[in-house]
Design a protein that fits this description.
alpha/beta, five-stranded mixed beta sheet, about 10% strand
Length: about 300
């Protein structure tokens, strides 16, 4: 499933909303409309119906409003812990300049281009990577290290190649390229059934409403939760693929837990406590279900190590 674990891994997630300026540039009748009416034009152009008035808007016609990531630097020596960092853009959601789309995309793509990490996402090859590339073109954001396609696979990172380990799409791995309702899987399903927090606080459909209500920080917090969930799901998939022994997997989880606790205690990021509480709730619930299965003589559910290193 997971073929390689890079020395530098970035598990990331993007949030976006319909871009009124896209309507103004694409459709002459929208040139002088306010934001609300311009978005209506976009929805109409993307197939709005009475039953579905707000359909999915094409990526190129959307605006990125947040990017969050967990960055993992591998330990330098055996037995040491990795270095973890939770990063989000805009760094100051209440600052209008920080919220400008170019000021969200450019720092992310610049950092990716300089350090060439292994990128991890969920449905990232068909959504997050695509919208980053399309919006970089639309906004004129240089992204050589991210968008460059090396002539040969061994001559550099190629995040858009069909089959390499520069970019890992967890959804693609879980569905194995299959289609149809039976094989489909969402981030929430894959996470919650693994004892990892899924969509417990809000959902992607609410991002535009949060934006219109001026709740920019709430968008970033939701985005951070998705990035954390993506990282923990990647970690679990790497564990079951044989890249981590059981005790190493426990240590890796504990490193993330300690990082989040430090953020809450030292930096006052209370919203991360909600994530920790949900993680604890799911872990306890899964342990109870396993105990019940054992008492009834049924095969136990696969459990998640408790996360406390020896």
């Amino acid at each position: 499933m997971i073929r390689t674990v890079g020395n530098l891994v970035v598990a990331f997630d993007c949030e976006w909303i319909p871009d009124p300026n896209a309507a103004r540039l694409l459709f002459p009748e929208a040139a002088a409309l306010n934001d609300a009416r311009a978005r209506d034009v976009l929805w109409a152009a993307n197939g709005a119906t009475e039953a579905e008035p707000h359909p999915f808007v094409r990526l190129m016609q959307s605006r990125i409003v947040s990017i969050a990531m967990v960055r993992r630097a591998a330990p330098k020596n055996p037995g040491e812990a990795p270095t973890l960092e939770l990063i989000w853009l805009p760094g100051d959601p209440e600052n209008p300049r920080s919220r400008q789309e170019a000021n969200i995309i450019s720092p992310f793509l610049t950092a990716i281009g300089k350090r060439s990490p292994q990128l991890v996402g969920f449905n990232s090859k068909h959504s997050d990577l695509r919208i980053l590339a399309q919006r970089a073109v639309a906004l004129g954001i240089p992204a050589k290290g991210f968008l460059h396609r090396p002539p040969k696979p061994w001559e550099g990172s190629d995040y858009f190649a069909r089959d390499n380990d520069c970019s890992v799409d967890l959804m693609e791995l879980l569905t194995a390229g299959g289609s149809g309702r039976a094989g489909a899987v969402s981030l929430h399903e894959a996470a919650a059934l693994s004892g990892i927090p899924g969509k417990f606080d809000t959902h992607g459909d609410a991002v535009l409403d949060l934006w219109l209500a001026g709740r920019f920080r709430d968008i970033v917090e939701y985005n951070c939760f998705d990035a954390l969930t993506t990282y923990l799901l990647w970690l679990r998939m790497a564990w079951v693929s044989g890249h981590f022994a059981n005790d190493e997997y426990e240590q890796e989880q504990e490193c993330l837990r300690q990082m989040l606790m430090h953020q809450v205690e030292e930096k006052g990021l209370d919203f991360l406590e909600r994530y920790l509480n949900e993680w604890d709730r799911l872990t306890s619930l899964k342990e109870r279900l396993c105990a019940l299965a054992a008492a009834e003589g049924r095969p136990p559910l696969p459990t998640q190590p408790k996360g406390t290193p020896a």
